[in-house]
């Protein structure tokens, strides 16, 4: 089983706060703008530090913060940002270094280019939001005293590899225990304390969180350690975003025993899924569709069309932003339904079509929004599937809708009903389901033939000519290949390349 580290985040809405958080955001952005200027002035010195980001952070910290034994090069920072929390200062420095590094990299690429594009500029005023570190800026009301790690008395340099591994495991166990205690306390009180800037001073403010969000965290994330929350603002409302790290083991089932969930993201139906085995047997099918959500989305697109006709396309950016949000919500629903179907039938792999938007022009707003949705569905489904131990694979979907799954050749689409495909035998079948079968078949054909020797490949190609070009493979090709490979050698017919 191969392990994978996954980071997930969840947004917890702030229902009530004893003080206004706008002042905290304002002072943080001013401090960030100041530090970006400092980092940019001293970038050559920062760049020469190759021992890690922590050392770069410490270097800038010494430049702006004075101590008893050290005088800062830029003493204005301590005067302008009096009592600025130390952990927040270091986090702000890290963000500033990242901003300047990105700017310098873009500038270097621009200088070696033909300089037709506009020269990159350093964005000083950024819409960033602060992070609240535990103990220093974030406390959970009602949480028990934190469990401390009992460290090995030996210095770090003298520890063996096994002792270091034990120390790391101890630290993770203690962090998990403290995180679980915090979530338990949150489910009882729903309040936390944040250190915020209010009336020219840093004070502790009581913040009430939404009960349903806390219930979700306790239900699904008690097994993972929560990171320091980040403040976010959406449509004038603040929230805290928690991140969780977890290690999952992905399935390593042999290809001949795998179950795959083949997915066709169609135009007629949101998604068509089928559970398939290596011999081409179809175990289950599912048609995933959310017609009411799509109707709402298309209503929004029609409003955009009318608005652009009257006011021009430049004034419609707010409408497009709303349409994107509606489309994103629909993508989340579809992705969740796909993964649930795969989990229900114990699928090892979810197979999607490979999306290639290069050279494609959206002829309509519907087509454009559908392209966004397909991309979003795959990204969301990948994250959800990995959390369940399911792998994700992609295949080239060229011709999956044009070719009949039974190997009879190209299909004809009814002009009045595009969802129906007519085979050469006059049989009518769902077009998206037909494409779904071919997607799953191409995955198995690729995985079976990839490790073959040249001799074995030539024998299979002679018996099943369709596999020579994978874009011509169908479910019928997979079944032929399986029958040939599972025929005893003593009774296999002679084939020539």
Walkthrough of the structure:
The chain is α+β, with helices and mostly antiparallel strands and 497 residues long. The protein has two domains: 247 residues, no CATH class; 235 residues, no CATH class. The protein has 13 helices and 15 strands. The strands form three sheets. Strands 1, 2, 3, 4, 5, 6 and 7 form a seven-stranded antiparallel beta sheet that branches. Strands 10-9-8-11-12 form a five-stranded mixed beta sheet, with helices on both faces. Strands 13-14-15 form a three-stranded antiparallel beta sheet. Strand 3 and strand 4 form a beta hairpin. Helix 3 crosses helix 5, helix 9 packs across helix 10 and helix 11 packs parallel to helix 13. The longest helix is centred in the middle third of the chain and has 29 residues. 27% of the residues are buried.
Number of strands: 15
- Which percent range fits the helix content? 40-55%
Cα distance spanning the termini: 38 Å
> Which segments are poorly predicted (pLDDT under 50) over 5 or more consecutive residues?
none
Q: Element order, helices and strands? A: EHHHHHEHEEHEEEEEEHHEHEEEEHHH
**Proportion in β-strands:** 15-25%
What Rg, in angstroms, do the CA atoms define? 29 Å
- The shape, in one word, is globular
Q: Helix count?
A: 13
Class from helix and strand fractions: alpha+beta
Mean pLDDT: 87
Task: Supply the number of structural domains.
Answer: 2
The main pleated sheet reads as:
7 strands, antiparallel
Give a brief description.
The protein has 497 residues and is of the alpha+beta class. The chain is built from 13 helices and 15 strands. It folds into 2 domains: 2-248, no CATH class; 257-491, no CATH class.
